[in-house]
Amino acid sequence: MTPPTNNEIWNVVSTQENEIMIQWLDQQAKSSRRTSAAEKQEVVRESREFMAALKAASEKGHGDDLSAPGWAPMRDLLTGLSARRARDGYSPAETASFVFSLKAPLFGAVQKEFSKDPIAALAALVQITNLIDKLGLFTMEAFQRTREDVISRQQQELMELSTPVVRLWENILALPLIGTLDSARTQVVMQNLLDAIVQTRSDFVIIDITGVPVVDTLVAQHLLKTVAAARLMGADCVISGIRPQIAQTIIHLGVDLSEVTTKATLADAFAVTLRRSGHAVVKTGAAAASNSK
Amino acid sequence: MGEFLLVSIQVDMHDRLALTLQDDLTEQIVRHRARGVLIDISALEMVDSFIGRMLGTIASMAHLLDAETVVVGMQPSVAITLVELGLSLKGIRTALDVEKGMATLREALLEKEVIGDAGS
Question: Which of A109, A124, A155 is the endpoint of a domain?
């Protein structure tokens, strides 16, 4: 007997479709932790769509080349499904098992149909396995892409959040840097800082690097660039928060900080900028009553 | 402005215009016995190495004529570009705007008096 054609396989699927659906949904329910009614409904809907797309593509004889136009509806369905599940926090395995858990019911159906013809059964099983594997892998890749999008969007938001410019006094700004300083972040930092200098007409900027874990040649360059840019806008910079290890690293690297005032603590930097801008801090004898200035 | 000159650069500078500016400026410094020059570049959206060199030249010429220079009104995007390109405009004083520029000039002139014009 000749091995069954693609068409014949999918004819089998059609005739046993209901049985296959029931088994498939059962498998998915078993391996899923999510049991809310809304989620169950969603799964049933997605499964029906999947089956319809699968039948449509196979009946037309599109083989297992997923890049063919005949598979477009299936690709769209799987891309949408993976993206939704990635955003809803499903694991990669949970998402892929949507496709892979269809194998067992399909195998069962094929075995029933070709029980008298083991060679045909084997050929059918091989075809089905190939196709389901490809669909499963496609799902995984779509899932990955969505995850990567989420990560890069979060990185962007993190960058914006973590470069605040704080006004310490009339014309003294503070720029507390938290985290690493790469060239992308430096751009954001410089932009924010210069805009703040223009808005507040500040003469002094204290760049505090207590929260910068590593200072290598590149980071030092970025710092110096920021200082130079602030200078061009007429503001003087003081760098504070230099930890002992950082001080050692900077000297070993031979970075030239002779043009910049540096202080160990933000407090010292604040004191020096207050002095330079003509302010004096006076300790009055009065204890801190609730409405004293 | 008393003993200060204010130059406002509004248009793109090219060779001839830059030379004309330098001629005019040096003449004005001498004529008015100006002690300070403010160059306002707030209208410039881009400063390249040519303009950078021109600013440096003007500052040097003015210094020879016993006047100090300050460049004011640099836009943030211009500052970032200059820094990225490594054109730090070293030796050229800068200030945020005309008001701060004048304060800077006054300080610079005071310093000069205190130190005495030792071989300027």
Answer: A155
Terminal Cα distance for chain B, rounded: 24
Q: Looking at residue A12, what is its pLDDT?
A: 72
Q: Are residues A21 and A135 in the same domain?
A: yes
Could you write out the DSSP letters of every residue in B15-40?
HHHHHHHHHHHHHHHHHHT-SEEEEE
Residue with token string 């507040």 = A200
Domain span including residue B12: 4-115
CATH of the domain at B111: 3.30.750.24
Q: List pLDDT tens digits, range A177-217.
A: 988 888 888 888 999 999 999 999 999 999 999 988 888 88
Q: What is the pLDDT of residues A29-64, one digit of tens each?
A: 887 776 677 888 888 888 888 888 888 887 776 677
- Domain with A185, as residue range(s), is 166-276
Among A50-64, B13-27, B59-73, which is the least confidently predicted range?
A: A50-64
Mean pLDDT in residue range B67-95: 89
Cβ–Cβ below 8 Å for B80 and A229: yes
Of A108 and A8, the one with more pLDDT: A108
**CATH number where A217 lies:** 3.30.750.24
In this structure, are A139 and A171 located in the same domain?
Answer: no
- The band of A240, judged by pLDDT with boundaries at 50, 70 and 90, is very high
Pair (A129, A185) in one structural domain: no
Query: Measured between CB atoms, does A183 come within 8 Å of chain B?
Result: no
Q: Say if CB A173 and CB A165 are below 8 A apart.
A: yes
Total beta-carbon pairs less than 8 A apart between chain A and chain B:
48
Point out the residue among A194, A198, A232 whose CB comes nearest to the CB of B89. A232
Q: At what angle do helices A183-200 and A118-161 cross, to 10 degrees?
A: 30
Please indicate, yes or no, if residue B41 is contained in any of the structural domains: yes
In whole angstroms, give the CA distance from residue A68 to residue A46.
Answer: 22
**Do the Cβ atoms of B94 and A225 come within 8 Å?**
no
Give the distance from residue B88's alpha carbon to the nearest chain A alpha carbon, in angstroms: 7
Q: Say yes or no: A137 and A34 in one domain.
A: yes
- B95–A234: do the CB atoms touch at under 8 Å? yes
Average pLDDT of chain A, as a whole number: 85
Residue A193 corresponds to which tokens in the numbers above?
Answer: 């800082």
Closest CA to A232 of B90, B105, B112: B90
Q: Is residue A293 part of a domain?
A: no
